[in-house]
Design brief:
Elements lengths: L7 E6 L2 E6 L10 H8 L7 E5 L7 H7 L4 E6 L2 H13 L6 E5 L1
Parallel strand pairs: 3-4, 4-5
Antiparallel strand pairs: 1-2
Length: 102
């Protein structure tokens, strides 16, 4: 860490806020095309399962843009789970996601 007392950052991408600790998680801009494609799906009322959800690369765009009713986000990395929780708060989507750890 070069500056500050923690590594938490917020990155906004396609209208979605991703919150993560850069000392423990990464953000991949390499899959922006796929994230944008997922954000354009019509998922009104759908329940979705996101395996290996990470910090919410697909969970968050699905919730913010597609009208999905609920996303089950599965993730084993505790740092990514903590980041996903913060991202859900930042995007006002806490009630629309169930996180399955482990």
């Amino acid at each position: 860490l070069v500056f500050g007392d923690n590594g938490w950052v917020t990155h906004t991408d396609n209208g979605v806020q991703y919150v993560f600790d850069v000392t423990k998680c990464m953000f991949s801009q390499g899959n922006i095309t796929e994230k944008m494609r997922m954000a354009q799906l019509q998922c009104n009322g759908e329940v979705i399962v996101d395996l290996f959800a990470g910090i919410g690369y697909f969970t968050l765009p699905l919730l913010v843009h597609t009208g999905a009713e609920l996303v089950h986000a599965c993730e084993w990395n505790p740092a990514a789970v903590q980041a996903l929780r913060r991202g859900l708060v930042a995007n006002n989507m806490v009630d629309k996601c169930v996180i399955h750890e482990g």
